[in-house]
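Wait, mind explaining this?

_____
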Amino acid sequence: LRCNWRSLGGLVQPGDSLRLSCAASGFAFHLYAMGWYRQTPEKERELVASIRSDGGSTNYADSVKGRFTISRDIAKNTVNLQMNSLKPEDTAVYYCNAVNPFGMPYWGKGTLVTVSS
């Protein structure tokens, strides 16, 4: 999965907002479900949010519900993750994920989000 970052991670303070944005290329974007995962040295990679290929359905980890919003722009082949009210426990490397119609996952490079005062 080739991900051209439009908005990268970074260092923010608790309570701040940050938007991750990945312009994906190299595949039929409109046919793939997209998602964001995150991983820390202490934990396995976990699903943060996912969105169906047509954008009609989304799914969120309980820990981010009400704070994070995933969206996609099919015309721009872009998937976004708007993160609000960030907490220190949101600190992780975030990965963009694509899943083809047969369930095969593809991964982009990660971007580090650090939430610290």
